[in-house]
Description:
Layout: H1 2-20, E1 56-62, H2 69-72, E2 81-88, E3 92-93, H3 97-106, E4 110-116, H4 123-133, E5 145-147, H5 159-177, E6 182-186, H6 187-193, E7 203-207, E8 228-237, E9 240-248
Parallel strand pairs: 1-2, 2-4, 4-5, 5-6, 6-7, 7-8
Antiparallel strand pairs: 1-9, 2-3, 8-9
Helix pairs in contact: 4-5
Amino acid sequence: MWNYLILLIFSCIFLACNKSNPKNQSGSLLDIGFKKDTVSLPKNDPSDLFSSTANHHYGIDISHFQGDVMKVYQKSDSLRFVICKATQGADYVDPDFKNNWNEIKAQGLIRGTYHFYMCSDDPVKQAENFANTVQDISSLDIAPILDIEQGSMTSTVSGSQMEKDILVFLKSVENRLNRKPMIYTDYDFAQQYLKNPEFADYNLWLAEYSGAVQPLVPDIWKEKGIKIWQKSDTYYAYSRALDLDEYSGDLRNIVK
């Protein structure tokens, strides 16, 4: 009798520990750690791309550094969008862009793409590189994205000149693709370098990892708010660390 009770107690402890540890779970990628009522599963039918009754929608962003993530993606995972790197600087194209771009669509997910900005390169040539690479972007895709962060900077370009060049890039991309771009950056970078009120005309995809219920929003975007929140850059899935993104609201508006 006592042996049976001891065995039962240890079994309960074991199950509880496994349940609390995400690495021991084999469940859906984003089901782990999120409330079920906020999870929105992707549909197999492309016509249902934006069909959802959830308030929060989750995604990841990838480049060739993450390998063939889309090849191991499972339709049971609670993802609704994936954003992939397209270009960097004036002439670099991510070697996995075309495969990622096509695979995201084939998997029935909303897709987006970004350009990593280099302050040392001409902004018009960078816009040409990006636009030529993602020229098939459509109204069903997230707006083209400019990624500007600390790694973009160079000692030869001042903060004020950088702001002017970024605006040149954004306007050049809009002219070429007929889509108003979005800006990706982190809170500290935006606070220090993106002070021109014109930036508020562009939606913000914000990297902010405080772990708070709501992110810290840079001053320029305080009134407008953010479009997408990159909540973590260390979300562990598919045997690798990924960026975890959240979009809140009507899913149809993620592409507007």
